[in-house]
Amino acid sequence: MSEIALDPTRLVIAAVIGLVILLVLIIRFKLPAMIAILVGAVLIGLGAGMSFDQIVKAVDDGMGNTLKGIALLVGLGSMFGSILEISGGARTLAVTMVDKFGDRKAAWALAITGLVIAMPVFFDAGLIILIPLAFSLAKRTGRSSLYYVIPLLAGLAVGHAFIPPTPGPVLVATMLGVDLGWVILIGIACGIAAMIVAGPIWGAYCGKKYFIPVPDHVAERSDQSKLPSFWTVALIILIPLVLIILKSVAGVWEFLAPARSILGFLGEPFVALTIATLVAMVLLGYKNGYSKEELEKVMTKSLEPVGLILLVTACGGVLRYILQYSGLGEVIGNAVSSASLPIVIVAFVVAALVRISVGSATVAMTMAAGIISAMPEIAGLSPVHLACITASIAGGATVCSHFNDSGFWLVKSLVGMDEKTTLKTWTMMETLVGSTGFLVALVISFFA
């Protein structure tokens, strides 16, 4: 369906009104994000002068084209993460890394572990699994718990925001039409820098400035006899990342040309994640004593939150197609071109504004990706540049976690801080993660 010729002024006014209504529905009336985004998108279409048939077409295309790219990935990633969680694989990585690094550099071990674990495991689950280890270290060393908790949180935030197969960057990459291999490579580059700045460095500062004792209710967990081996867990996590990256580089490196076809198939994200999930079922599930029935129950339960994620994402796709079919994407693109602002910067600002207003990183990524993907300019950009835009959106959707973000209250409650201290530590850490990742993506984009 081609874009329709509508008055640019009317398009902008309709978009502003529609987006304001969308934010009011979420913030003031607490409407579920899925319904709010869908209502906002339809109102933008009506205000812009699109016909009912054109709006219905945009909704159908937005839902279908968005879900076909991510539904399998989010589902498989969720099941993969659930096996890693219940088998103790996540704790294995943390315990082994801390032992190898020693108490003096344990903050670095926790940051790296958090980054790795957050790719297949949801942020909340990863935090609940690993935070007892940070508390244990704080008890042992007599330091503020923030000295270890902040690096862990930074690693989890980075892995959750920047690196597939976590849902956020997968949905943005799908909407922008960029190869996941490049998203992983750029995400790792941005994520490592963000992890260092917001993790061990900021954690050391917070640990010295704010003494937060270990909560009284924390219990020691010493039984590690049933945990899987470190190398088993590490190799399983690397399977999808390596296969996806090999598919991308096979198109560039000539010596891989003979294997390009097979690598292309194995590196398809859904194939790579399926392989990793099957291997995890055998090595972390069955070999750890879980029966087929138990494993099926765990994996099925892990799909419960997936439906909401997919529906919010699909409604973001509807917003994207409304903007594109109405011609508003071209209007925004022309405005950005005339303002001489790199799209990477625009993507970060849009995502950050939504994040600050709504609180949800998923909604911020979805809305920003919908707006940016509707701009005609992205069609001529290289895969690396598009991956930088993806990382920029992820960065914007991470900054400034405050009272409207559930993550803010989860961290406050688990660590035992008051609101003021949580703002000074957690909120600043999230802002450092997002802004550092964005700056690295911006620099890389200049050479893309």
Radius of gyration: 22 Å
Task: Classify the helix fraction into a percent range.
Answer: over 70%
Strand proportion? under 5%
Shape descriptor reads globular
Tell me the series of helices and strands, N- to C-terminal.
HHHHHHHHHHHHHHHHHHHH
Low-confidence stretches: none
| Secondary structural class | mainly alpha
Overall strand count: 0
Helix segment tally: 20
Biggest beta sheet attributes: none
Mean pLDDT equals 87
Instruction: Indicate how many domains the architecture comprises.
Output: 1
Terminal Cα separation, in Å? 31 Å
Task: Please explain how this structure is put together.
With 448 residues, this protein is an all-alpha fold. It has one domain (68-445). Helices cover 76% and strands 0% of the residues. The protein has helices spanning 8-27, 33-48, 52-86, 89-101, 106-118, 123-141, 146-162, 167-176, 180-209, 230-250, 260-266, 269-285, 292-302, 306-326, 328-338, 343-358, 361-373, 383-396, 406-415, 419-445. The longest helix is centred in the N-terminal third of the chain and has 35 residues, at 52-86. The protein is globular.
